[in-house]
Structures are given as structure tokens and as C-alpha cells.
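Example 91, ligand zinc ion.
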Amino acid sequence: MMVRMQKSTAESILLYGFENHSPRPFDCPVCGLAMRDARDRSSFESLQCCYECKESFYYLHSDGWLKGERPDDEELANYLRKRGTRPSYSF
Ligand SMILES: [Zn+2]
């Protein structure tokens, strides 16, 4: 059943979605990079991050992660630097 999800601030655009639907962001809330595929979608649904963040941060600090802790700015900068050196076709 379609229900009204939210109203834009401009009052001219209404968004509709399915009942009990929770929209996913285009970008990972942790690293800010685009969520690309089913692995990212699955990771977001369980841990609210992309697959790469799950692999890089969650498995190292799962107890803290589940309490809401996320990488600090320095960890995130190092992580993004490493990801930036990998070829884009690498998964
Ligand atoms: Zn991420």
C-alpha cells in the first residue's frame, strides 16, 4: 500500500513509497562514498554502512560499533586514502 513518505520544504514535491519502506541513502553515512550494489545494501540494512566500511571497521571494533562508535576523522582519512589508491574496478 502506497503511503505519503515526506513532504519537501518547497511544499511542491510529495514523495510516496511503500508502507514500512525505509529509504536508503545514496552515500554511506560513515565514509560518504556511493553505495553501489547489493553488498552495500545488505550492509546498510544490518549495520548502517557500506560493505567496505563493514569490512574495514565493523569487524575490527564490532562491540564499539554496536554501541554507536564510528571511526574518528584520522581513521576515516587513512581509510579513504587507501581506497583512493585502489583501481575503481576492484571490489
Ligand atoms: Zn562506507
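Summary: The mean pLDDT is 84.
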